[in-house]
Amino acid sequence: MGLQSLERRLERMVEGVFRGSRAAIRPIELGRRLVREMDEQRSVDVKGRRVVPNDFQIHLSARDLASFDDIGDVLRAELVEAAREYAREEGYYFMGPVRVDLLADDELRPGRFTVVATLRQAAGGVGAGSLVLPSGQRIPLGDRPVTVGRMSDCTIPLNDQNVSRQHAEIAPTRGAYVVRDLGSTNGTMVNGTRIGGEQRLSDGDILSFGSTYVRFEAS
User: Fold this and answer.
1) Mean of the per-residue pLDDT values for the chain?
2) Above 70 in pLDDT, residue 127?
3) CA distance linking residue 173 with residue 62, whole number of Å
């Protein structure tokens, strides 16, 4: 996609949401700086992957930060999504979940900001991963298994009669994530193929539990 296309995406996604803000800084400026830090700080790990920062601290003047008070949570979420999208398109790899914080800096004048970008490894060293549900809700993956099923105490409870009470789990193992079927009646499928036991997941895989489809995102 490249930076130019990403900027167009940010213009549509971010500026449409925040057009009413009185901040001296436009959200698109924050997005551009964030992905520039990813480009400038990328490195290659021992597996040959292009690794980029995943933890971003955006320092703003107190006045600019206050102008984002009503939209701060949404702004952070939109910037995180922009970073994930850019990483997928550029083939970058995150060592852990993406996080964006907005912080006040009394030494900055309105209209000025700085970005501190850091590589932060996920617990257990499994990298970053998440599940995107049909509703668009994102479930972050960490160093503990995530269970899927009809039971209310599952991490992802599904109201789907084709799903077993304890249907499957997604768990970290050997630096990646795998999906395991837990003896479900109708089985678990990855990209339309029923798995036999467990299967390692790759970015963009579609997991099927009954008639419910969930997307796995490695970045």
Assistant:
1) 85
2) no
3) 43
pTM of the entire structure?
A: 0.67
Instruction: Give dist(CA 99, CA 95) in Å, integer.
Output: 12
Q: Could you tell me the two tokens for 172?
A: 């970290």
- Tokens encoding 136: 């668009």
Report the alpha-carbon distance of residue 208 to residue 192 in Å, rounded: 7
Question: What residues form DSSP beta bridges with 212?
Answer: 209
Q: N- to C-terminal Cα distance for the chain?
A: 16
User: For the chain, what is the HEC assignment?
Assistant: CHHHHHHHHHHHHHHHHHCCCCCCCCHHHHHHHHHHHHHHCCEECCCCCEECCCEEEEEECHHHHHHCHHHHHHHHHHHHHHHHHHHHHHCEECCCCCEEEEEECCCCCCCCEEEEEECCCCHHHCCCCEEECCCCCEEECCCCCEEEECCCCCCEECCCCCCCCCCEEEEEECCEEEEEECCCCCCEEECCEECCCEEECCCCCEEEECCEEEEEECC
> Which residues make beta-bridge pairs with 170?
146, 179
**CA dist 154 → 116, 148, 198 (Å):** 37, 6, 18
Task: Count CB neighbours of 132 within 10 A.
Answer: 15
Tokens for 191, please give them: 């990209």
Amino acid at the residue 150? R
